């Protein structure tokens, strides 16, 4: 049975967190229509509020329609990354659907490339975030230009975000820029691109990205 017909009317769910907020989104597979978004700033009792906000966000009927989940694993707020990954893993296990994960920097990479016109004269660049104490978290991204007339770009994560004491020999580097709605949209887009290679036994392989300890 063709993939498009098999998954007709199914939904992709995205779960994301930034330094100070979290959000959910869903839309019909392989479509830009019927999108729904929810974002919220962190509160003290994130653990309980996360579940309450999620159950208020999606109906039982739509929850049954989900066959793919896409989650960001960080780097972002330490506690939020841990809790949204636990939520995503639990949902994927319970409803037996595929779970895909992407770093927060990978979600913003295309937006940063377009904003700074990087693709005109560079084929790779770095995204970094300065730590409160010392050093940086940085990841490297490669730009791939489509050979189609529309010249669309795609991004490959060459080096996942990790700790660097100094940003040396990083000829093209840009500061991390989180965006709730845009990052959620990219989570949905990336999941759709990988949809034909998804399987339902992936939830236990998805872990938060912890380049630093919570004190940083």
Summarize this, please?
With 216 residues, the chain is α/β, with parallel strands linked by helices. The chain has six helices and nine strands.
The oligomeric status of these chains comes to single chain
The CATH topology annotation of the largest domain reads as Nucleotidyltransferase, domain 5
CATH architecture of the largest domain: 2-Layer Sandwich
Going by CATH, the homologous superfamily of the largest domain would be ATPase, nucleotide binding domain
Low-confidence stretches: 1-5, 196-200
- Overall helicity: 25-40%
Query: Could you say how many structural domains there are in total?
Result: 2
- The level 1 CATH classification of the largest domain is Alpha Beta
Radius of gyration: 17 Å
Please list the strands of the largest sheet in the order they lie side by side. 3-2-1-4-5
Strand share of the residues?
25-35%
Structural class: alpha/beta
The topology string of helices and strands comes to HEEEHHEHEHEEEEH
What does the model show?
A 5-stranded mixed beta sheet has the order 3-2-1-4-5, with helices on both faces. Strands 8-7-6-9 form a 4-stranded mixed beta sheet, covered by helices on one side. The protein has 6 helices and 9 strands, in the order H-E-E-E-H-H-E-H-E-H-E-E-E-E-H. Strand 6 and strand 7 (136-145) form a beta hairpin. The protein is globular and about 50 Å long. The longest helix has 18 residues, at 78-95. The chain folds into 2 domains: 3-103 and 179-205, Nucleotidyltransferase, domain 5 (2-Layer Sandwich); 105-175, no CATH class. The protein starts with a helix and ends in a 23-residue tail after the last helix. By secondary structure, it is an alpha/beta fold. 35% of the residues are buried. It has helices at residues 3-6, 46-57, 60-65, 78-95, 104-115, 180-193; strands spanning 11-17, 21-28, 36-41, 66-72, 98-102, 124-130, 136-145, 153-164, 173-175.
